[in-house]
Design brief:
This protein is of the alpha/beta class. It has 14 helices and 18 strands.
């Protein structure tokens, strides 16, 4: 039996803050005991980690990443190996990535392809959601089988006609199936049909710069699609999880639905909390680095997102990590913003940015852990194995120095991308040591993990539903 003791830290979970020692046995949390008590003092272990003056927190659960995603004639630049290593550097110990069903193919073919990409490559544990691009009778039957095997969430797109797009009828059928089998429908809520008209008109006017990406993907069209998704879910009697919410009008739709008692959930991402259309408007095509969908919004939307996180009308902060290099990838859209690959790097930055939000007074320490660890784990059927520090949980633990200062930069990050979306941003707080199932992955700011340590993790259904 291998044993590790973490001594002297402030253990922070979604529900508690306690000065406690943590005993780890064979990859799991075995016990907690108040620091300095005889019970804690009696523990012996092969490895002792001194966490005095530090936080001891659960490893982050990033429920929205896209490693190696094919998009716009290229691929996301992080592989499962590089992306999960970067995640670990940032204090995230579980990702849920998206397997993609291509039109004309089965869900199983998509899932098999993504399993092959990830198998033996990951530094941390991982699961999959399933992108459903082609709803038909066979697909609907496959959804039942996937839920039984632990792929319990399905993403649909109201955007990207001709690629991932589903019409309202297809969405309704998938939602009805989810209502029956317990699967959670995740929705990219933007009116893609209307957006395509605005894109065409903007380009015809010669409006080709990256900033027009934000102007055509209007907040009203995010709000409209969010409203429509909620109503379709209501008709189907199904729960709904809206991904990457960026507009205050979309938050208002979610708030209204939740006030009506509907099982509707919302996720936002650090880029919408910390970046804005000012970044999209950066000159010399630098704005292309910030092209993602839903797009960055004017700064005034940020207050509504922070408020939604405080009031629990938004429950989760994920990254939507989908990096494309500036050179050779983002540059595909020079002269035509619609050809810029959509996505930002961020899997390494999320825990630190959210700790900065604690420092800045936007959220509490426990809320930080709730939106970054516990709630995503519960939302997608991983709790209490993941997302908390409690006896029986996997020993996914981060020793976090709340006082260390850092400057985010491409020079120091570990994501496989040639720029940082947060270049030059000063933050307080930094990951020092990371354990994944009791194994050291980051040890005092050195990577000690390995490809293949991370294992595929099947999930139960959403734990917020009756």
């Amino acid at each position: 039996m291998s044993r590790t003791v973490i001594r002297g830290g402030l253990v922070i979970t979604a529900s508690d803050e306690i000065h406690a020692d943590v005993l780890i046995e064979d990859g799991r949390i075995a016990a907690l005991a108040a620091s300095g008590t005889p019970a804690a003092g009696a523990w012996t272990a092969e490895r002792t980690i001194d966490a005095t003056g530090k936080y001891v927190i659960p490893g982050g659960v990033d429920a929205h990443t896209h490693m190696e995603l094919p998009f716009g004639g290229t691929f996301a630049s992080d592989t499962f190996e590089t992306g999960t290593r970067a995640a670990a550097w940032g204090g995230t110990t579980t990702i849920i990535d998206f397997a993609v069903q291509s039109v004309g193919h089965t869900l199983r073919e998509g899932l098999d392809a993504w399993n092959a990409k990830a198998d033996g490559k990951c530094a941390i544990d991982y699961g999959f959601h399933m992108i459903v691009s082609d709803v038909n009778q066979e697909t609907l039957k496959e959804m039942d089988l996937l839920v039984e095997e632990g792929v319990t969430s399905f993403k649909q797109f109201m955007a990207y006609p001709g690629v991932f797009y589903s019409d309202d009828g297809q969405i309704l059928r998938a939602m009805q199936r989810g209502a029956e089998n317990g699967g959670l429908i995740m929705m990219h809520a933007e009116n893609g049909i209307a957006i395509d008209v605005l894109v065409e008109q903007a380009l015809a006017r010669g409006e080709t710069d990256p900033r027009y990406h934000g102007e055509v993907r209007k907040a009203l069209l995010e709000a409209e699609a969010t409203h429509r998704a909620i109503k379709l879910a209501q008709v189907a009697g199904a729960p709904l999880y809206v991904v990457h919410v960026s507009a205050q009008q979309a938050v208002a739709e979610l708030t209204r639905a939740r006030d009506e008692g509907l099982n509707v959930f919302g996720e936002t991402c650090p880029q919408y909390l910390f970046l804005s259309t000012d970044n999209l408007a950066e000159p010399d095509f630098e704005g292309s680095k910030y092209v993602c969908s839903t797009p960055l919004r004017p700064k005034e939307h940020q207050a509504a997102l922070w408020r939604g996180l405080r009031t629990n009308d938004l429950q989760v902060v994920s990254t939507d990590h989908c990096p494309f290099c500036f050179e050779g990838q983002k540059e595909l859209g020079r002269g035509d913003f619609s050809k810029i690959p959509n996505g930002l790097p961020g899997v390494e930055n999320r825990m630190d940015l959210l700790h900065q939000a604690v420092v800045d007074g936007h959220i509490s320490r426990r809320r930080w852990i709730e939106i970054a660890c516990a709630t995503p784990a519960r939302m997608f059927g991983l709790y209490p194995k993941k997302g908390t520090i409690a006896p029986g949980a996997d020993a996914d633990v981060v020793i976090y120095d709340p006082h260390a200062e850092q400057i985010m930069s491409v020079e120091t990050h570990h994501m496989n991308v040639d720029y940082s979306a947060y270049e030059g941003k000063r933050t307080t707080g930094r990951v020092e040591t990371v354990l994944s199932r009791g194994e050291l992955v980051i040890s005092e700011r050195e990577f000690t993990g390995r490809a293949g340590h991370g294992v595929y993790t099947p999930r139960s259904t959403c734990q917020y539903l009756n």
